[in-house]
Amino acid sequence: MKVLVVGANGQIGKHLVSFIQDSDRLEAKAMIRKQEQASFFENVGAETVVVDLEDDIETIAGAAEGVDTIVFTAGSGPHTGKDKTIMIDLDGAVKTIEAAKVAGVKRFVMISSFDTRRQAIQDAPPSFAPYVAAKHYADEWLKRTDLDYTIIHPGGLTNDKGTGKVKVASELDRGQIPREDVARVIFASLENESTIGKEFQVVTGTTSVEEAVSSI
User: Record's SUPFAM superfamilies (predicted)?
Assistant: First the structure.
């Protein structure tokens, strides 16, 4: 199975591409924004394609040519304004979903925010609410398609080394999780069809990633 990783140059994306390339069952295609980002992926033997999420649907669909699955790990980042939140986390996500349809890619894995329900927008601090709203509407757009989707809601992201141990459920108490372990959860979800049509929260826990994902 060939997987297009959108936002591959992010920390979760890099971990995921590495895990995929270490597997004998999956193959990664890294979607990056600048050619100078390609060296990391070339070093692990992954194909790269240079496309900006602010490009049009047809351009993004071109990046998805020849793949079986799309994983959306992109994000505008904490140091950009509300305009980039809209253009990347909402419009970029929706365009990628639509590009999947154009390219005939049925499987779509979305990396979302921990809680994107309507109440979470109302409860979020003013500086964070636009991000939650963007994720909310991107998730809702995906759920209204006929794509084989999985939506993963990770807790607070850290750069700690992954433990390979997590807790997953439709609703959890807030917690943290290393980005490396989020990538492991994505990888396990790609290999487990029981995650299709599901969304779940994930934080650090005591259960192996494989066992936790299999329980979804």
Answer: NAD(P)-binding Rossmann-fold domains (SSF51735)
Q: Which residues have CB under 8 Å from 53's CB, separation 6+?
A: 6, 33, 60, 74, 87, 88, 91, 92, 95, 96
In a domain, 180, yes or no: no
Look at residue 80 and give its three-state secondary structure.
Answer: coil
d(CA 187, CA 195): 11
Q: How far apart are CA 70 and CA 139, in angstroms?
A: 15
How many alpha carbons lie under 13 Å from residue 69 in its C-beta half-sphere? Answer: 24
**pLDDT-derived band at 79, boundaries 50, 70, 90:** low
Q: What is the DSSP string of 119-141?
A: HHHHHS-TTTHHHHHHHHHHHHH
CATH number at residue 74: 3.40.50.720
Tokens of 107: 């499987």
Q: Per residue in 109-126, pLDDT tens?
A: 999 999 999 999 999 999
User: Known catalytic residues?
Assistant: 131
- Print the domain residue range for 117: 2-154
